[in-house]
Amino acid sequence: MSAPATLPTEAPPPERCELAVVGGGIVGLAAARELAARHPARSLCVLERESALGVHQTGHNSGVIHAGVYYVPGSLKAELCVRGARELYGYCERAGIPVERCGKLIVATEPGELARLHELERRGRANGVPGLARVDAAGIEELEPHARGIAALHSPATGIVDFGAVARSYARDVLESGAAISTACGVESIAVVRGGLRLTHARGVTEARNALLCAGAWSDRLAVAAGAEPDPRIVPFRGAYLRLVPGRRELVRSLIYPVPDPALPFLGVHLTRRIDGEVLIGPTAMLAGARDAYSLARLRALDLRETLAWPGTWRLLARMWRAGLTEIHHALSRAALVRAAARFVPDLRPSDVEPAFAGLRAQALARDGTLVDDFVFSRSERALHVRNAPSPGATSALAIARHVADEAERTFALG
Ligand SMILES: Cc1cc2nc3c(=O)[nH]c(=O)nc-3n(C[C@H](O)[C@H](O)[C@H](O)COP(=O)(O)OP(=O)(O)OC[C@H]3O[C@@H](n4cnc5c(N)ncnc54)[C@H](O)[C@@H]3O)c2cc1C
């Protein structure tokens, strides 16, 4: 988890600007950076609700630069993750942000998983992921001496970074381009007015000719406020992590992942070395009682009401109650979470871990109960919305930024 930003981001929000970007997470900041670089003569501001940047998903994740193995060929995730990872490595090297191509193993422990591993390899190759290789049991041990499995897919292009640091660097670029960033500026309502949008926020009103809304776990709420469809709704999935105690970090050299369940958009409990040397185990995936339920006990009546009133929630629970029970077990029992990880690293013991932190996934859920897998972008009058940017959204942010900037140029006639 990264430290809060110490950038000059408390500028008073402008009364008028040409383009307002709402949301100071990695996606909003990358998009603001791209648009400010392409259109230096246009006035641009970023409005962020919290008093610091990147404190939600951007600051609470696994820190993995995904190479693009998992995603359906031809999907936005496949295209934007592969491109985004390549651009991110280049950006970090230029900006002096620590980054490491440590590689990752996706490990099958049972014959029943081999067909799915094969499918992942097919997808990865179709997506143009560099360097993918199949390894056998001996190959697994060579790369990860404490890991066990019957076969694995090795992705040497997968890496690690602190996405909070990356987001702060994007914010620095935005500020250097002359645009303003205003924190503590949560947008409460959006009205279409003559010639633009009136954004009423915690620090007054900003009238913008156009807006780009990148509000993560609150993106559906802002989209509805701007006149867009309520479908899909965001349901928050809490992902808690454990960390290895310092004396046991040698159990994991890089990144060890399971073969994911194709019915779920989450990648399963993994072991992740971080750029600061810590090793995480997790995350869990449990429906949460608030969009910022960093503690298990936090409930917010509005969030809960919106989740429970959404027909998709009940359709999802009816279909996936068994997976839901396993996740609740992982979330409530440290020993169960350790057991899930010990499938790949048998030497792992409950005494090797301590609690770390939790993140909240902003996951779009369709009315029919489908967990929306791909990135989703949509439009309303004078606004563009990033409606679903879960993992690998942080990896993909520079490519998402280009995608939405192209769309903004077409829709807002910025070009
Ligand atoms: C547990 C977990 C593990 C993950 N692991 C990885 C990983 O290893 N690799 C990877 O690539 N991705 C990972 N992800 C996904 C990644 O973190 C997200 O895709 C990415 O951070 C999304 O960025 P964002 O800017 O859309 O959202 P956020 O970072 O959540 O930012 C949204 C911002 O909008 C602001 N906002 C909301 N409402 C308003 C409002 N009304 N007015 C003004 N501002 C508002 C919020 O305060 C917030 O700052 C993970 C996510 C989680 C939760």
Describe the structure.
With 415 residues, the protein is of the alpha+beta class. Among the domains are: 150 residues, FAD/NAD(P)-binding domain, CATH 3.50.50; 134 residues, D-Amino Acid Oxidase, Chain A, domain 2. 32% of the residues lie in helices and 26% in strands. Strands 5, 6, 7, 13, 14, 15, 16, 17 and 18 form a nine-stranded mixed sheet that branches. Strand 19 and strand 20 form a beta hairpin. The radius of gyration is 21 Å and the shape is globular. The relative contact order is 0.19. The model has no long low-confidence stretch (mean pLDDT 95). Flavin-adenine dinucleotide (FAD) binds next to helix 1, strand 18 and helix 10.
Q: Main attributes?
A:
binds flavin-adenine dinucleotide, alpha+beta, 9-stranded mixed β-sheet, 415 residues, FAD/NAD(P)-binding domain, 8-stranded mixed β-sheet, 10 helices, D-Amino Acid Oxidase, Chain A, domain 2
Give me the secondary-structure topology.
Elements: E1 16-22, H1 26-38, E2 44-47, E3 64-65, H2 76-95, E4 99-100, E5 104-108, H3 114-127, E6 133-136, H4 137-143, E7 151-155, E8 159-161, H5 163-176, E9 180-182, E10 187-193, E11 196-201, E12 204-213, H6 219-225, E13 233-244, E14 255-258, E15 270-273, E16 279-282, E17 286-287, H7 301-309, H8 311-332, H9 334-342, E18 353-365, E19 376-380, E20 383-388, H10 393-411
Parallel strand pairs: 1-2, 1-12, 2-9, 5-14, 12-20
Antiparallel strand pairs: 3-8, 4-8, 5-7, 6-7, 10-11, 11-12, 13-16, 13-17, 13-18, 14-15, 15-16, 19-20
